[in-house]
Write a structure and sequence with these properties.
The protein is 44% helix and 13% strand. It has 229 residues and is an alpha+beta fold. The protein has one domain: 2-Layer Sandwich (BirA Bifunctional Protein, domain 2). The chain starts with 8 loop residues before the first helix and ends with a helix.
């Protein structure tokens, strides 16, 4: 029997409507749609992805709990934000390393938003000490870094993404052949997907293949910051 897709166009329809009606009264009136078409399909995806994730590494967690697991909350933290809209207009899952409980630890990530679906693996906005260790690891073993980020397997599916410094970081040779990589503040491999791909039965395998392509990059990072892979 053909596998059913985890996601349907109803997910994107809800998120588009939420973007136009980002208010608590609208959300409460449509909350069952959010649960049925967005949250619960993502939780099923997370649960089913556990087997695929274990084939990449057994140090990353696919936790399908509605709260406190791999699913990011729909509610925005508006306490210190100028934008007071209460809800995110995307749904995301972070498959965290078992040694790190926050979004800045190494991991794999899936972001679903109308017109902007992407996923991959690496580390986003690492804290200062971790950032220095990753940069030092690139200098120490440039060939391994290049294998992780320039290989055919990686480049056929992913690209390095994230923010970078405008100038070389302090303490690193401005003429280093990998200076553009050393200037990075994020070390994350990403691939983009279409809404049609997300709604296909094989999307979980497509995303898993992206995570496998990012595996050497994530392994490089976990070694650099001193956790297992």
């Amino acid at each position: 029997m053909r596998q059913q897709p985890h996601f349907t166009p109803r997910l994107f329809k809800f998120l588009r409507e939420l973007k136009r009606n980002n208010r608590r009264d609208w959300f409460e009136a449509n909350k069952q749609r959010y649960l049925d078409d967005v949250r619960d399909p993502m939780l099923r995806f997370i649960a089913d992805f556990a087997l695929h994730l274990a084939q990449v590494s057994d140090h990353f967690v696919a936790d399908p709990r509605p709260n406190g697991g791999s699913l990011f909350r729909i509610y925005r933290d508006t306490r210190f934000a100028k934008d007071k809209q209460p809800y995110k207009t995307n749904v995301g899952a972070h498959f965290r390393h078992d040694a790190g409980a926050d979004a800045h630890a190494p991991g794999f990530y899936l972001h679903i938003e109308p017109g902007g679906v992407f996923g991959g693996g690496g580390i986003w906005h690492p804290e200062g000490p971790a950032l220095e260790r990753i940069r030092a690891a690139i200098v120490h073993d440039p060939e391994r870094w290049k294998r992780a980020t320039r290989s055919k397997a990686f480049c056929s599916r992913c690209e390095l993404d994230g923010e970078a410094l405008k100038r070389p970081p302090r303490g690193f040779d401005p003429d280093h052949p990998l200076i553009e990589d050393l200037k990075r503040k994020d070390f994350f491999g990403t691939a983009s997907f279409t809404e049609q791909q997300v709604c296909q039965p094989d999307f979980i395998e497509r995303f898993a293949a992206t995570c496998r392509a990012c595996g050497p990059l994530v392994h490089f990072i976990t070694d650099a910051v001193g956790v297992g892979f």
